[in-house]
Amino acid sequence: xxxxxxxxxxxxFLVTFFTPYLQNGPHIQLHAKTxxxxxxxxxxxxxxxxxxxxxxxxxxxxxxxxxxxxxLWAWQFRGAVTTGVGSKIGQLEARREHKLQRDRERGAQLAxxxxxxxxx
Length: 120
Fold this sequence. Notes:
Elements lengths: L1 H23 L9 H19 L8 H9 L15 H35 L1
C-alpha cells in the first residue's frame, strides 16, 4: 500500500509540474493537444488493468489466496472454481446473504399486509 501511495504522489507531482510547460511552455506549446498525451496514457492504463486486475467480487480472502496460488490470468478468476476452505467460507457467506435477503422480503410482505389491513 505504501508503494502504491508513493507512486501516486510521484505521478501527481510529475503531471502537475509538466502539464503547464506542455501547454504554454517556452519551447513546447501544445495547448489543448496536451489532452491527447493524457488520453494515450489513460488508454494504456485501461488495457493494463483490463488484463491484470482480477474480478474478486463475492470471493472470500481465502478463495482469493487459492486463486493466486493457482497462477491464473486475471480474466480467468471469474469462472475459476475453488475447492478449499475458502470456497466453503464463500458458500456459508452466500447462504447467509441469501437468508438475510429472504428475511427482508418477508418483512416487506408483512408490512404490506399490515398496511392493507389498516386501510380497510
